[in-house]
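Bench notes, bay 3.
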Amino acid sequence: MSLFKDFSWKPFREGMRLQYRAASFNTFSHPHFPGPDSLVGSPTFGKTTSPISTARELHLALKFYS
């Protein structure tokens, strides 16, 4: 998920602008589980032990266009 907001700087110079960016990965922090362990004889046979997804991540940035 991404959000962008542009701010015009016309009083200083035509075409100048500042852009604020916010990007989020795994925004809602939903876990993604792998399939169950299929190795017969394993102590975790048939069980899903841990999620394979990463935690929520947020990136913020400013970009200046001249």
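Next record in the batch:
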Amino acid sequence: MSIEALVNRFGLTLYLYRPTTGVGNDGEVSRSYVRTAEIKGFVDSTSETSAVAYGRANGQTSATIYLSGSVDVRIDDEIRSGVTGTVRNWRVEGVVNPGETVAANSAAHLAMTVVTATEVDPGVTL
């Protein structure tokens, strides 16, 4: 099954958020995320790791997100499953566009974006 067929059959509406920074009147730097796009993609939860830090276990869930076509996704962007309420939130760690290899003259079915991400709490800041 191609990525496009997978996204069309099992895909979710996802929302892409890009980080922005600002400086307040007191000089404090603040970071927030601004919604930049509504996209359709398939989320494949791949693994969960459990690291121990400060005497407690901290779990992280990795995911691979498949998007049809070439989508402008960058490292540190966030992809969310909704806009309001309880949503799942993934922070982008890597992006690959297999169809954008000019030297290889890639086939049309490779026009996709593959994102590796880690699920995070939407309220967590870096």
